[in-house]
Structures are given as structure tokens and as C-alpha cells.
Fold this sequence. Notes:
The complex is a heterodimer of chains A (263) and B (392). With 263 residues, chain A is α/β, with parallel strands linked by helices.
Amino acid sequence: MKCIVCMTHVPDTASVIKIGADGKHIDESGIKWIVSPYDEYALEEALLLTESKGGEVTVVTYGPQRAEAGLRECLARGAHNAVHIVGGESTLGDSLAIAKVLAAALKDREHDVVLCGIKGVGTDNAQVGPMLAELLGLPHVSGVTKIEWSDASIVAHREVEGGYEVVESPLPAVITAQKGLNEPRYAALKGIMAAKRKPVEKLEVGALGLDESALAGVEATYSVRSLELPPAKEAGKIIQGEDDPKAAAAELVKLLADEAKVF
Amino acid sequence: MTELSQLDLYHMDELLNEDERMVRDTVRRWVEDRILPHIEEWAWECTFPLELVPEMGKLGILGANYSDFGLPGLNAVAYGLINQELERGDSGLRSFASVQSALVMYPILQWGSQEQKERWIPLLGSGHAIGCFGLTEPDFGSNPGGMRTRAVRDGGHWILNGEKAWITNGSIADVAVVWARTGEGVRGFLVEREAPGFSTVDHHGKYSLRASVTSQLVFQDCQIPANAVLPGTTGLKNPLFCLTQARYGIAWGALGSAMATFAAALDYAKSRIQFGGKPIASHQLVQEKLVWMYNEIVKGQLLALQLGRLKDAGKASHQAVSLAKRNNVWVARECAKLAREIHGANGIVNEYPVMRHLMNLETVYTYEGTHDIHTLILGQYLTGIPAYEPPA
Ligand SMILES: Cc1cc2nc3c(=O)[nH]c(=O)nc-3n(C[C@H](O)[C@H](O)[C@H](O)COP(=O)(O)OP(=O)(O)OC[C@H]3O[C@@H](n4cnc5c(N)ncnc54)[C@H](O)[C@@H]3O)c2cc1C
């Protein structure tokens, strides 16, 4: 099986996020970047599949120079090849622009399956996978938590409210991975050393027949007006109840109803 | 939780290459997932998580800096960073890995026969066998040269008699590297768990390194085959070479502990409110403690890093290793104390990691050459005068 995994490099979920000076981007200083956790499920599934059925895993990212570290991490875990389409600062968050770039890079590459994370942590749009499928003319199954693989088709379980749906799809297809699909492995330290010797193919957006400034300009489908942090948590209110528990209880009920509006 | 990487004033990350960072981050993640959620319980119950040993093997933590038999072949800095991350979790877990790599696999690779290497290195590297290192005796700690354990040749065998004390992994080891006096000087022996006349007794009642096994090894006419001797060992310098390897890792490991107690103290100081509705971090006295810790950690990192670069270049002397072990373990011990103070009463309970680190560091301060013994090693380096024996 030839598997392609689309990977995005995102701020560590444990990072303390600050807003940048332009009020539209995050301040990247001091941020640690990681492989988006949902992409880890996609990669793990591809590795398990090729370990049992043979084949190759190619990881593709569209991102700035630093995203190469994410590719190396995937190579260290066992991916065979990596493709780095360098760019993406100006199209950040524009799912359609990202899907167009990925589709252009993937269309002439042989693949039996394309795996993505259901969403990129941080932007959380959950659109790139389905858009990529449309642009490639492939079926897609999103939010998958279990896959049974056959040679030319799959049966996938996808999460729906309160249960799951079982879907059959022919291959090739685009699948987006949801938490629960598998337990991603750690890179073995030996794999980290081996990753140094594996190839990372570098591509410019222009070489794919696309114009990044147009994607970010006239063709943009998404623009950020402003970014704001959630409001700081206000200090809690303590009702003193030692002297008059009855009055304190009444006060609590009143506050819950009027201020917290829980009923 | 505070990430020291977000307080990287000296851009320390840029001094590491990509594989070094990736090794560090991988081990950090493993420690966060597999050790931190359970470590307080293990330490409280005094249990060592045996089930993690094959996981460490699979990850490549055991013997990570060797490349024989398919081991990862990491450089000294990456090996140091592994120790840092393990000890950010717990000194006991780091001790396990230090012993296995630097005190068991190292002497087998350096001075073992091909047969010994083939039998043990794959098992030890994959975590399918555990090793221990027996040098210290009940009456000989800082002065191992006085050891009483003896090995004598008896036809096709060696007969071992004596006792080793304070041996990490002792009763869980499949193989013990035991140092004994012989007619030909001090030599190392591989004693297997089942050897007749070999038994172990655990040290109980430890307040320190509770998530690590520490045992006495007892040899009573213990018979081991002639080929159990490590052929390349000829004197006390052999175990001392092993200690230099382990001490190098400890210099890094101690920083991990210091980072853990510092991060805990900083978070606590910013959230604990006293006097006038202000966090205790707003008091100058508390800030001074935090600054001291941070300052010493930054210095300690530079020390460890330069030592690692020297080691990779084949230029790290044992005295340079002593200096880093001595400094960084002292820093970690002081950080644990300051973090304990900042935590107030909460500092004594196992809801916070500081008391565990504080107690662990009492061992780290003492083993692998006590702080004072390293002072004497450096004193001799500076003056040319050894001061170990009291003047006549
Ligand atoms: C949990 C734990 C695990 C251990 N694991 C191992 C292991 O795996 N293998 C192993 O072989 N050993 C191990 N040890 C033993 C450790 O290496 C020794 O405890 C250490 O070398 C100190 O020896 P000692 O305890 O006999 O102290 P002593 O040598 O009796 O020292 C006591 C005090 O006297 C001071 N002192 C001694 N001599 C001098 C001198 N000449 N000048 C000035 N001061 C001096 C010391 O600095 C110290 O403060 C372990 C110890 C502990 C606590």
C-alpha cells in the first residue's frame, strides 16, 4: 500500500499562547512546535498498515522551514519519505488554499490512501481533508476511529453524536483520523538517528503551478480580523455561611439563578 | 505548568542540534506519559515499575550512546539529555538507566569477551535483562580500594566470597557486574542471578530513591565459571572508568530534577496568595529564591553541555566530570530545598513533587562519589596533593 500522510506543524498544546503585535497572529517567540496530535493518529495508522501489508509511507507538509522538524519526527517514527512544500505563512488558516497546494502536490503521486488528521490543532477548522478529497476527486471518510482494511476498499467507523457510523469506501480515498483510532508510538531513539539519512524532498509552491501570493490575496477564502485571548478568569465569589447558613443558601441560589444563569 | 523552554533566556535550544532536541523531546514525552502520572504512588509504595524496563529498551534509552549490536549510537549530549528528562521524572528511574547503561553495558562492551557481549548486550539493551554494579561494600564506600570481596581460582571456576552493599537493581538483576580482589588485582565478574552461593537482601526503610531497588549482594563460596571474568579488567581503574561514565550522566540528570522543582516552585509562587491578596511571587524574598534556582540551572546547563561536547571530542577528563557532578547535584539539592520552602506546608506532601526530589537528591549527593570526595578530586587536580588519607 502506498500511503500519504498530510501533516501540519502546530504550537505545542501545552504552550502559553500570546497574541502578536499585529493582533492577527500568535506571537511565535518561545513556542515549541509539534506534529499536530490528530496527524499522529493518521501517521500511526499508515505505519501499522504498511508494517502488516507492506508498502511505503510518505509524509507531506505545507509549511514554513521549521515544519521540517515535524517531518523529521514522522521519519523518526518510521515514515519512509517526506515532502516539504515550503511556505504557508500567508495562507495560514485558509483551508481551501492549503487543500489546493496539497492536491497539486499529490495528484501525480501514486497513492492507495491519503490520511490526514481530522483537524489541525490551533486553527481547528476540520476542512482540509474533505476539501483535498474533492480536489483530488476521491471519496472521503472523516473523523475515523477504526478502519478495517481490504485490498481495494475499507470499512471505517466514524464518530457521530452519541454513537458511531460504519461506512464502506473504495480505495483510494482520503481519511481523516480522530482520537481513538490508535495509540501513536514514540519515535525510537534509533529511528531519530536513521531519520537523518532519509530524504526530505523540498518543493516551492510555484513549482506546483500555483501562485502563493494569489492564494493569499485575490483568491483567499479566509481572512483573520483579529485574535483575542479568552477573558481572564474573574476571582471566585465566596459566600460566608458560618453565621447564617440559611441566608447563605438563599444568596447562593439567587446568584446561581441571576448571575451564573444555571437555571 | 511552566515550561522552561519558554524561559530560554540564553537560547539554549539553539546550542543543540535537531536530533538532540528530538531525543530530548521524545524522552520527555515518554516520561510525562508513563512516569509522572504514577511516580508519587510508586515512591510512596516503594515499588520500582519493572514493566517499564522493556519500554525503555524499545525506546532505545538503555545503552543509547553505544552503537554495537544495533544500539542507537547517540552522542554524549543526546545521552545526557535522556538522563535529564528521566530525572525530571525521578532520580530512581534515572538511576536504573544509568546503572544499566554506564555501569553494566559499558564494562561488558569495554572489557568483555565477544561471547559475553553477544550474550548480554542485546538482552540488556532491549530491557529483557537487568544488570547491577557491585562495587561498594558495607565497610568500603568512598574508599572502594579497600574492598574485601575476593575471587580465587579453583580449577575451572572462580570462587567468590564477600558482601556488596547499596547496590541499585541488586535483587532484580539477571546479571551483576561484581568487582573483587584477585591475585592479579581488582577484576570484574559477571555473576548470574542463579549462581550457587549468590543471594541478595534488599535495603529497607529508605526515605530516598524509593522508586528504585537497592540491595546487598552476598557471596558465600559462590561458584562461577572461569569465563565469568571480564577479560580486559586488571585493576581498580576499571570500575573507576565506569563511574566516570555514570557521573557524566548524573551531571545532566541532576539538572532535570532541578528543572522539575524550579518549575513547581515558580507555578506555586505565582498562584499562592498571602498578605494583601497578592501571590507570594510578588515578595522580593521569594523572587530571590526563584532567581537563584533559575540562574544556577542556566549555568549548570552550560556546564553539562560543554562537558558533553568535550566528551564527544574525546577531551573530557575525569576531573571535568567530577566538577559537573559536584556542581549540578549540589544545585539540584539546593533547588529542591528552596522549592520546598516556597511550597510551605504543601511542600511536605506528595501532591507536589518537591519533597520526593529533595529526598532523592540525598542519595544522588552521596553516590557516585560524594560531593566531598569530588572536592578532594578537584583539590588534588589543583594542588597536586591528594588529601584522601588523614595526614600521619
Ligand atoms: C540509594 C543508593 C544506591 C547506590 N547504588 C550503588 C550501586 O549501584 N553500586 C555501588 O557500588 N554503590 C552504590 N551506592 C553506594 C554509594 O556509592 C556509596 O554510598 C558512596 O560511595 C559513599 O560511601 P559510604 O556510604 O560508605 O559513605 P562513606 O564513605 O562512609 O562516607 C561518609 C562521609 O564521610 C565522607 N568522607 C569519606 N572519606 C572521606 C575523606 N577521605 N575525606 C573527607 N571526607 C570523607 C564522605 O564524603 C561522606 O560525607 C549506592 C548508595 C545509595 C544510597
